[in-house]
Amino acid sequence: MNFKNPKINIISLEEVDSTNTYAKNLAKEGMDEGTVVIAKRQTMGRGRLGRKFYSPSGTGIYMSIILKPETDAESILLITTAAAVAVSQAIENVTGKSTLIKWVNDIYMNEKKVCGILCEGSFRDCHTLEYAILGIGINISKPDTPFPDEIKNIAGYILEKDDENIKEKIIEEVIDNFFNLYKNISKKPHLEIYRKRNLLSGKPVNIIQCDEIIDEGVCTGIDDDFAIIITKDNDTIKISSGEVSVKERI
Ligand code: BTN
């Protein structure tokens, strides 16, 4: 694989519990920024909000990037959203298929989730980031064993048939696109593209906290800090963490 950024160092594994956990241990031992752990299969792939990430053998990309940004805790949201843009563009550039970003960092194709992103930070004190692990899971092709019941209505994949060449190209593009944005991350170079690819734009949504719907409204945009803007009657709410889902139309 070839990368524009000379700092990229790939560690390829057949199987691992979670590439995020593996990369976190490396970062703790002092491994450099730009180290990327890629596995063919994860036995305990982790998602946001304590969920599992289904990671069957050979049909997905499971990778984690060690980052050591010289910024504060807020940069986690910038990193995550930049990764979402990097993945969305990579899929489009390599396969020609369009994807959208569901706030905050899921990638959807044809109304199905094809990628999830989990960025975990380790903090020296409350605000200083020691390192961040950017984990990206992409469902490239149809898994040999069907998606588990709890995600079968949500999860999708990009290609009907596995293709190692395409997988490799997507990995290269994701990494190149991401580091291109990351070098100027504090200037938010991805804000406008993120807004254009906002899946929830204009849609009625539920606001969810701890798996409970706590409010509803219509998504009317993304603010300058990547918070989602939700409008209800004449009120506007901005949310910077948590979950929002498209309301079922009856
Ligand atoms: C989500 O959809 O909630 C986030 C999923 C993130 C999955 C990726 S796969 C590579 C990395 N290792 C993990 O254990 N999780 C992330």
Description:
The chain is of the alpha+beta class and 250 residues long. It has four helices and twelve strands. It has helices at residues 19-28, 75-95, 164-182, 191-196, and strands spanning 9-16, 35-42, 60-67, 100-102, 106-109, 112-123, 129-139, 204-209, 212-222, 228-232, 235-239, 243-246. A seven-stranded mixed beta sheet has the order 1-2-3-7-6-5-4, with helices on both faces. A five-stranded antiparallel beta sheet has the order 11-10-9-8-12, with no helix packed on it. A hairpin with a 3-residue loop joins strand 4 (100-102) and strand 5. Helix 2 packs antiparallel against helix 3 (164-182). The protein is globular and about 50 Å long. The relative contact order is 0.15. The model has no long low-confidence stretch (mean pLDDT 94). The protein binds biotin (BTN). Biotin binds next to helix 1, strand 3, strand 6 and strand 7.
